[in-house]
Amino acid sequence: MPKQTLTRGDLVGLRAEGQFVLGSGFFNEVHVVEDEVVVKVAKPYGPLQQPLSWLRQNRKEHEASARHLRVPATYHVRMNRRDDRPVSVILQTRLRGRLLSQVPDNELYQPPLRAELVRTIRAIEHFGRHIGWLPDVIGGPPRWGMHDLRRSNNLFVTDEGQIWLIDPGALFLWFSRRNPIGMIYTSVLLWSGRRMLRRKPVR
Asked: Where does a domain end: 93, 122, 154?
């Protein structure tokens, strides 16, 4: 990809140019361009930009997640603003559908969507056992229910009935099973997934 320059106006939702703000996560501001591409711009911390190592780690987590779960086509790009300050940008194909947290029980627990839910939760469990950490299967913003997969804002149900992980990049301390905090948190997440699988179909 050729070098590009960006300004805040380029990325903060100028509706006249076909852009709008989709949301905000722990590390990113999220925008949609031309209704087709999701643009995630790394948030600065005070005067400091996210380092290049953050972008590299995020790419590794995307690649690892894509070997186990459905992850949209994603490109990790280091760009310069017009004042030559670097900024990390993630470009992603936009999916059509709803967040898992927005899907009512009478749809989620009926076939064939229930079969897709089973496949996804089994894949998450397999990931945790064999990789030693979990991707961010919950997503922001901070809220009550971040221990419960049923309230996930990062698992996305498309109009075709597939479940995708739209933002795998994890807070490593939370999602690693190699430290006490991560072990407790990921165990609770996996338990919530198994509880979902025990739910009977809603009629």
From this structure: 93
What's the whole-model pTM score? Answer: 0.82
Say how many domains are in the chain.
2
Pairing between β-strand 28-33 and β-strand 5-6 as defined by DSSP bridges: unpaired
All residues at 6 or more sequence positions from 178 whose CB lies less than 8 Å from its CB, including other chains: 132, 133
Burial of 22 (0-12, 13-18, 19+ CB in 10 A): middle
- In the predicted structure, residue 111 carries a pLDDT above the cut 80: yes
Range of 38's domain?
A: 5-93
190: tokens are 């996996």
- 48 falls in which pLDDT band (50, 70, 90)? low
74 within some domain:
yes
CA distances from 202 to 107, 109, 160, 196, 199 (A): 8, 6, 20, 12, 8
